[in-house]
């Protein structure tokens, strides 16, 4: 998908889904700090998992150490939030230029029943080729969602099928796997880019 076409599609998708996206409220270092009385108690966000990527290659969380990582939890049958977010992340990678090679973007599927490696591979063809998709056994997917404090819920649909309600924020980690904040698709594009640039600069 050409970048210009992707940008135009994203504007339409964002307009159609405005008010739906729900992101976490953390900010990266350098943002406006919350009052001391409202500062949450630090808890670990993220942990080990053993999944496979869109090529069937085994992947662990520790295997991503060495460069900053942006993690998004979604699924391939998602009609709006997931393609919009992955499209925005694809544009971000292109806009970062050579620096984008220092950022790993990862999609963790919350729908292992349908999202096989082959399905993930086909789905990711519409986005930046540097994005890695992960799936695996239900137990490992549940472990990943649990340790990353991500939400998902299987919801039946009227046609007898199902969809997945899930967290919509993008989790940001430094090169050592330390959680540093999130990207919210409600934020201005410039704000999201500045967050990523600060993350990359801190890990340079």
TrEMBL record:
Gene Ontology MF terms in the entry: metal ion binding
Disulfide bonds: 78-82
Thioredoxin domain sequence ranges: 28-201
One Pfam family recorded for the sequence: SCO1-SenC
Domain of life according to the entry: Bacteria
Record bears the keyword Metal-binding: yes
Annotated Cu cation binding sites: 78, 82, 166
Keywords linked to the UniProt accession: Copper, Disulfide bond, Metal-binding
InterPro entries referenced in this protein's UniProt entry, alphabetically: SCO1/SenC, Thioredoxin-like_sf, Thioredoxin_domain
Keyword check for Disulfide bond: yes
Family affiliation: Belongs to the SCO1/2 family.
PANTHER family the record matches: ELECTRON TRANSPORT PROTIN SCO1/SENC FAMILY MEMBER, LINALOOL DEHYDRATASE_ISOMERASE DOMAIN-CONTAINING PROTEIN
Protein name per its UniProtKB record: Thioredoxin domain-containing protein
Taxon lineage: Bacteria, Pseudomonadati, Pseudomonadota, Alphaproteobacteria, Hyphomicrobiales
